[in-house]
């Protein structure tokens, strides 16, 4: 969606992307995360920091929908503490040799290309990490496990292993040591996408509850005529509107090329909580019907929960926000 027309993309701005993400995720949050990772992490990262040759080879087919991308930062020992990368990349002639493990990788089993963060110089910590484009089918890259999840069950989440996986030197994105900043800057935009995904799930919950309240009768009237239910709907709609405005504000700042790390963290923190709150209230309004699979609201809760976890937990978002507030 946001890839420029020069590389075959739709050239949309982030505001348009947020609107699309909300609509897609309102119907299917699994589809939402597939789209989000491909657009705001993979395509954005390559367009922003990739070499021209990498853009021609990978970004053009990504934009055309011929390739799907994944983003591999998380490891068994490096989730929130993302700088603690144990995967290594050693230069050997014209190749880097990758060794290590990545987990919880969205699109991991199906992606055609994977952006992999790996330590090229462990002694430099966060500044010794680099980014590589690894093609599916590269010898030494294997899918170890596909996860069975609480929600977003039609999105593929996989663990990957790299065993002496040789990646051409020309597939390193940007200079050596830029990988952590690459990941952080890319995730800033990713978080806007996840905020919009959360918004979509929250809106689906609200809409289901609203419709149900106008059909279901109790104590001689429709649920929608009961003030207890009206207040729940009013709170849901108000929280959703606030989440939407925070998300759109972060998107507008990104489009204006202003700083958006903190607004994106605030949007994701708030929208993900709103999604969980709205899903819980939708279940409550549905009563027993909300707890069974005949109605969609139990799925909304299962799908909503992950938005408080991936692309930085709510605790990490608070950390990002607080650091900015307390900066000298
Ligand atoms: N944009 C640009 N640069 C950033 C940045 C950002 N958003 N965040 C950090 N950096 C830079 C810092 O400025 C610092 O640069 P210098 O060494 O030049 O000063 C460097 O990156 C290291 O940053 P910092 O010291 O803050 O790193 P920490 O190890 O303390 O980690 C957090 C910072 C916790 C914010 C980071 O690890 C994080 O976001 N973790 C969550 C990761 C995540 O979202 N995982 C989800 C999996 S991906 S689906």
Could you explain the architecture of this structure?
With 328 residues, this protein is α+β, with helices and mostly antiparallel strands. The protein has 3 domains: 59 residues, Orthogonal Bundle (Butyryl-Coa Dehydrogenase, subunit A, domain 1); 108 residues, Butyryl-CoA Dehydrogenase, subunit A, domain 2 (Beta Barrel), CATH 2.40.110; 146 residues, Butyryl-CoA Dehydrogenase, subunit A, domain 3 (Up-down Bundle), CATH 1.20.140. A 4-stranded mixed sheet has the order 1-4-5-8. Strands 2-3-7-6 form a 4-stranded antiparallel sheet, covered by helices on one side. Strands 9-10 form a two-stranded antiparallel sheet.
Short description:
With 328 residues, the protein is of the alpha+beta class. Helices cover 49% and strands 18% of the residues. It has three domains: 5-63, Butyryl-Coa Dehydrogenase, subunit A, domain 1 (Orthogonal Bundle), CATH 1.10.540.10; 69-176, Beta Barrel (Butyryl-CoA Dehydrogenase, subunit A, domain 2); 181-326, Butyryl-CoA Dehydrogenase, subunit A, domain 3.
The CA-CA distance between the termini, in Å, is: 37 Å
The computed structural class is alpha+beta
What is the general shape? elongated
Q: Let me know the CATH homologous superfamily of the largest domain.
A: Butyryl-CoA Dehydrogenase, subunit A, domain 3
Biggest beta-sheet profile: 4 strands, mixed
Radius of gyration: 21 Å
Number of separate helices = 8
Portion in strands: 15-25%
CATH class of the largest domain: Mainly Alpha
Q: Which H/E pattern describes the elements? A: HHHEEEEEEEEHEEHHHH
- Can you list the strand order of the major beta sheet? 1-4-5-8
